[in-house]
Amino acid sequence: MSTGTAEIEITSLSKVFGAGASGFRALSDIDLTIRQGEFFTLLGPSGCGKTTLLRVIAGFEQPTEGSLRINGKEVAGEGPNSRPVNTVFQNYALFPHMSVAQNIGFGLKMLGRARSEIDATVAEMLKLVQMEAMAERKPAEISGGQQQRVALARALAPRPRVLLLDEPLSALDLKLRKGMQTELKRLQGETGITFVFVTHDQEEALTMSDRIAVMSAGRILQTGSPHQIYHTPRERFVADFIGDTNFLQVEVAGVDGDGAQVKLPGGAVHRARLPQGMRPDTGARVTVVIRPEQAQLVAPGQGALAAQVEKSVFFGTDTHVHLRLPGDAPFILRRQNTGALAEPDPGSTVGLALAEGALQVVGD
Amino acid sequence: MAEPRESHRWKWLLCAPALTILVLAASGPLLIVLVYSFLTPGNMGGVIWQFSTEGWFRVFFRRDIFDPDDITLNSAHLAVFWRSIWLSLQTTVLCAILGFPTAWFIATRPANTRTIWLFLITIPFWTNLLIRTFAIQELIRNSGTINTVLLWAGVIDAPIQMLFTEFAILIGMAYVFLPLMVLPLYAAMDKLDFRLVEAGYDLYASRLQVLRHVILPLVKPGFIAGSILVFIPSIGAYVTPRVLGGGRTLMLGNLIDLQFGQGRNWPLGAALAITLLVIVVAALMFYLRTLNRDEGGRHG
After folding, report:
1. Which of B26, B148, B214, B275 is deepest in the core (most CB within 10 A)?
2. Contacting residues of A for B209, CB less than 8 Å apart
3. Exposed, middle or buried by CB within 10 Å (0-12, 13-18, 19+), for B285?
4. What is the largest CA-CA distance in chain A?
């Protein structure tokens, strides 16, 4: 899907609001390359700087330091009206005094395109987002989901190189949101435009993105495919933010290549992957991550870990078993309810078998 | 069943205070003015209770002193009407031009300092109108601040005659009524969603295009309210044209004052007052209808 050519190149970019020592560093030293035609997601909790980064790319904010190139051209210092980038705003920001069609045609009109071309593109966009019947309505006369579609069409109409989406689905209810996720992927496929999507919803990020950058406190912690982010998180924050996670404090028994032998609570030694560039000393305490679905309940005395059952929580498709490991560490295990599995009795002792490659060492 | 209906019958009495105020304070004086305009002037002012249309006749026409049947159009009155309308229109436009950037400046300040700017805008309102008008006079008279500075700087050789001209009245009225334009404009801008301005820039609009296609249409209600608030007191202005026009450049308010004072022709004054009211109402209706037509046109 991604051709590999860089669409957006960000180098050593920082953004400070306010001046002097009281200034707030919203973005620190961002290095990021977004490839042509990919669905790229900036993911992080509120206040992590993801929206600021998006606004810097859009041109609403100018970087304090660093360089920002779009399609090879340096754009730092330029205004939003001279960048081949359009934004879908969080609350859509549709012009309330214009009809749906006028909203969609606004960008082309400002670019000075011919009336006939504007009309043709507006008709095409209305069709693309299935809003033909609403062309003459005002934004106040259509529903939230429809406003969302119009905002998309308005941003796509000038055929930008990059479409920026600032949490566009957060105002929609769950069902509509699921529909729009599919819709967005379809639109991206049909237009071939690079999408930069901002969200705090990790599930949304995992299902929609080609690549994800996880952000916290103005920094990018890790960039990678949803698979990489989920299975090989480099830092505790990333592992914690994406999906449910168990953290275990373990002792390093030895290092080999890109992995380490770690001593689990209870004494068993198991292999864990190491994040790139991390080589802990033998005997050091490190944190490992185990995803809840990568452990299995086995008979007591078997498996890598022994645990005591606290309770089971039924979720329909699966059941979460809450356990206590030796040393009182909590552990949650997810079992898919594929057969009529008996729930373990609270208080009973069980064994935990870990899947191959289940352990990932993370930095703190 | 009968009990609640009985009490219902007297419920309108609850409106009595409001009705009393409406009748006595609003309609009453207007009715008196209307009645007076159809009476005969008394020799020492006041009216004689005798029906006459002479007051209304004199609003528009004039009789020759020696030959009462020689009737000509009262061009002096018409000139005053025209000057009042024209100066009020200019005042409104000037206030809009000055008020827009002022209101925009206030609306784009940080929220905690906006109150201070609004406070500064309203301060002149607390000062007596006469004093403010004399202050303007001090600025623009021949030996006033502006002429002194210009003479000293060598820009001009002789003082510019600004006082006692229509220009002086225009400046004075724009100064006095400017807050009435700024405040409704500010209220409209305060409600403006600035993301719409960003959306405009994002969609390749220049600053001027954002102003024209996004900001101006959205603050239009503020312009409408401000224009009405400035135009109405302008057309009836009395103090400003009196002090800055020097009694040489009359506006409707001064003309009416003249009839109730030196002119001793109350019916004519009353008829002129009603004429002023009619002009204001007609202007308002014309203005609002034009706006509505624009609005309707945009749908189609």
Report:
1. B214
2. 110
3. exposed
4. 77
Q: What is the DSSP string of A132-145?
A: GGGTTS-GGGS-HH
Residue A215 forms beta bridges with which residues?
A220
Q: How many CA atoms lie within 13 A of B165 on its CB side?
A: 10
Cα separation of A5 and A1, whole Å?
11
Q: Give the CATH number, domain containing residue A186.
A: 3.40.50.300
Give the residue numbers spanning the domain of A61: 6-236
What's the CA gap between A152 and A356, in Å, rounded? Answer: 43
CA-to-CA separations, B185 to A330, B88, B102, B124, B225, in angstroms, rounded: 60, 19, 9, 18, 8
> Are A110 and B203 in contact (CB < 8 Å)?
yes
Which residue on chain B is closest to A94 by alpha carbon?
A: B196
Contact B201 A86 (CB under 8 A): no
| Domain end residue (candidates: B55, B72, B89) | B72
Residue A1 belongs to some domain of the structure: no
The DSSP output letter for A59 is: T
Q: Give start and end residues of each alpha helix (H) in chain A.
A: 50-58, 100-110, 115-128, 144-156, 174-191, 202-208, 226-231, 236-241
| Interface contact B218-A96, CB threshold 8 A | yes
Classified as helix, coil or strand, B42 is coil
B212 in reach of chain A (CB within 8 A)? no
Last residue of a domain, one of B46, B72, B98: B72
Number of domains in chain A: 2
Interchain contact, B205 vs A81, CB within 8 Å:
yes
Q: Hey, are the CB atoms on A158 and B214 less than 8 Å from each other?
A: no
Domain match, A204 and A266 both: no
Could you tell me how far CA B164 lies from the centroid of its own chain?
20
Structure tokens at B139: 């600025």
The SS3 call for residue A99 is coil
Boundary residue ending a domain (A236, A257, A274): A236
**Structure confidence by residue, pLDDT tens digits, A43-76:** 999 989 999 999 999 999 999 999 999 999 999 8
A80 and B201 in contact by Cβ < 8 A?
yes
How far is A62 from chain B, CA to nearest CA, in Å? Answer: 14
Closest Cα in chain A, distance from residue B194 (Å): 9
Start-to-end Cα distance in chain A? 33
Residue A146 C-beta-side C-alpha neighbours within 13 Å: 19
Chain A hits for B193, Cβ within 8 Å: 93
pLDDT in tens, A321-350: 999 988 888 999 998 888 766 778 888 899
Burial of A107 (0-12, 13-18, 19+ CB in 10 A): buried
Whether the per-residue pLDDT at B4 is higher than 60: the answer is no
**Distance between CA atoms of B225 and B103, rounded to whole angstroms?**
14
